[in-house]
Write the structure tokens for this entry.
Amino acid sequence: MLQRNPPEAVRPSPWSTPPRLIVAVAVALTLLAGCRSTTTEAEDEDPQPMNVLFIIIDTLRTDHVGSYGYERDTTPNLDLLELESARFERAYSHSPWTMPSIASIWTSQDPKQHGLAVWRDVLGEQHVTLAEVLQENGYRTEAVVSHDIIVAKYGFGQGFDVYDSSALRLGKSLQIKSSEHVTDCGIEALDRAGDEPFFLAMHYFDPHKRYLQHEEFRFGRFKMDRYDAEIAYTDHHIGRLLDHLTLAGKADDTIVVVIADHGEEFKDHGGRLHGWKLYDEVVWIPLLIKVPGFEPQLVDTVVTESDVAPTLLQLLDIPIPPSFHGQPFAVEEDHFVVRDDRTVYLETYFMGEVCKRGVLHDDHKLIHDCNNDHWSMFDMVRDPGGSRTCSTTPIWARWPSTRPPRPGTRRCGRCCWRTTPWTPPSPACGSSPRRRRSACAAWATSTERPGRRRPRADQR
């Protein structure tokens, strides 16, 4: 009987793959492709922009801050911040009182550019503010203020999603202790921001007169002692805000700016308070800027408050609007580049009565008293306190535009930077602010508002 050989086992082809293996490989490749896609998307995604915490302290003299050499322990929290910050040794305000100074901070313009000169002037919508620029670039913008002269109705709320002036419900700004409330509102604003990039502007008013006493911060009973107590009280509550920023995990992603709007005089040049003069005790201001990743440094060059806004935009890689006239600080990898001193324009037209303007450049300061048409120049190296004038001869070569008017012309009223035809003295050019303004056609036709009341003496 013929036997057949058993059939040979079918051998798998080297090019064939079991179905389960095919599925496993397909799943693995899909997951790998997903991982690569996620990694690519993460690499292509823009990094989270840095936040900005902007702290303005009203009426803070630079030489009463510990990191600037003050012997009293008035600012321990600011001194700790200074260890991580760039400290600007020669920062100046354009004006010695609140409204024009803060307008200069937000618009990066000096007073003759933004036009705010007397109380109840309004910051017009034609002026672009730092808050508006950041808001247009996706930032949540909030402000907490504690002075009735910078409330929203005067135009200072432009660009802010939330403009909180609830501190004024506690009472008149000159009669209350508001720093605790301001910090509480600031902490709530930080919590509301969540993961959004934020710009939070904080205004602390307490160092302003009337120098209320604080039992926990007592330095003495005289006015300057109580002033220092107000500074220490404000510093304590700023410390609470900075601590919360750290606890919220946002300190490493937040630029912190601390600046004053102006200083305060204690008989340095025969007077008190601020607004009337352009000496260093009222226009020399502290300025600290902490940038994550930057080395602490001392910047010993002349800068001004209007330089801060364009510098922040430069750090955030946001285009600077053409209306910003401040000069941004040059930046390298982890520090600010020391630049040449800039020229700083100074001006006060305070209470509608006092008119002074000045120019600060290099080591000299020139001041023009427009009411008396008196010019003074000070050597800020040989005479830092500005106690005696020096010759004005060298300054005309540097700044020909500051040369006194030629015979036959005069300066008049608010428009002290303009020249108007000279007329013999008359009642219209007397000491009354209203008469002096009406004597100048440019002022009367361009900025006079019907029904404007004279500001109270306790307002800044």
About this structure: The chain has two domains: 51-342, 346-446. Residues 109 and 325 are 5 Å apart (CA to CA). DSSP finds twelve helices and 17 strands in the chain. Confidence is low (pLDDT under 50) at residues 1-33, 35-44, 393-460.
